[in-house]
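Per reviewer request, we include the raw input and output of the structure prediction for the construct analysed in the revised manuscript.
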Amino acid sequence: MQETDVDALLRQHGETIYRSSRDGNCLYDSAAHQCPEIARDATDLRQQVARFAREWQQLYPDGNSHFSPIEARAYARLKGDVGYDAGNTTITNGLDEIAAPGCFSDHIDTFFLAQVAKMPVIVIDINNNVTLAVDKHGRSIDWLDAYDSSLVPRRKILLVIDGPHFMGRQMAQN
């Protein structure tokens, strides 16, 4: 049912659904499918995003009072204290979560994803509302209402979030 609703939503925008994995890597699977020139699969993209996020975090060891709201949220995500075991790994912060295959992904991770993929990332919910949109530099795109595909370039990553699961748009096969 969930995928049927998302497919109907995407068809309104001239797109079809990419049925992403359900193994905890859905954000990265959906995104990697839309940028195969950047990453060969979800694991590769996840590792690229984790590396970028780590390097970005190291630029600001104590934060930055001039962060934009999205930068502040991304920074808080990386620093956020959590504590649980994931296989042979202990997850202690958001950066650990980003780096560990199968671990939780937050839509704020698209701040880093857009900069790695060098294209805009738009996250919509199943009601067609934009929950987060960033340009290729990770800057927030102000969006006040429903998703409108005519407002963004064709070259983008479009993700649909339904609860904890991300799905994306199907790319044409070569």
